[in-house]
Amino acid sequence: MFTIVEVIALLKTYGYLLIFPIAFLEGPIIAVICGWFSAVGILNFFIAYFLLILANLLGDVIYYLIGYWGGPPLIRRWGHWIGLDLEQTIKLKNHFDNHGGKILLTAKITPHIAVAAVLAGAGLAKYSFSRFLRYGLTIEIFKTAILMLIGYFIGDAYQKVFVYLDYFAAITSVAIAVIIGVSFYYWRQSRKNNIQK
């Protein structure tokens, strides 16, 4: 939506007024920029931290409610405007009963995953709203703090931060794939052993 240079210029000009809407639209990189601006005295770290968490949670809740209240008809008709794919959302819906927390954690900390589909899938599955908020808030508290601290300590080198975030995303994605693969292997082995007995 915005280039990094545009986001920096807008935040320098309008400060707190834009943190909420930009965080709502842009996501994690705004936390890094807010951390950097806190380090150089443009923003208060804690006010920015609170606004970022609030904006991210509101976005999560909106996607959840789209799935909960709108269901497949709304997603089919309007989902493409906000990155929702009905087929992907319905597949995720079926996994929420047993693995809701793990799915939310994976989606929220791993870039390049269709977060909107996961959050709408939680609503579509009628996943407990209080549990959804509890997981979302816990994840946001830690994720936002880490991203802001990255910006606080190495914000002047913001172009390098993008490279490190891409490395982090790749490593996290590979680690999750390995964990899923190993878990699946052990699950299959235990099923074979149970069948043989």
Account of the protein in words:
- This protein starts with a helix and ends with a helix.
- The chain is globular, with a radius of gyration of 19 Å.
- Helices cover 83% and strands 0% of the residues.
- The chain contains nine helices and no strands.
- The model has no long low-confidence stretch (mean pLDDT 80).
- The protein is an all-alpha fold and 197 residues long.
Topology:
Elements: H1 4-14, H2 16-26, H3 29-39, H4 45-78, H5 86-93, H6 96-109, H7 115-124, H8 129-154, H9 158-196
CA(first)-CA(last) distance: 57 Å
Low-confidence stretches: none
Topology as a string of helices (H) and strands (E): HHHHHHHHH
Beta-strand content estimate: under 5%
**Helical segment tally?**
9
The total tally of domains equals 1
Helix content: over 70%
Mean pLDDT: 80
- Give a count of the beta strands, DSSP E runs of length 2 or more: 0
- What characteristic shape results from the CA principal axes? globular
Q: Give a quick account of the main beta sheet: strands, pairing sense, barrel closure.
A: none
Structural class, please?
Answer: mainly alpha
Rg measurement, Å: 19 Å
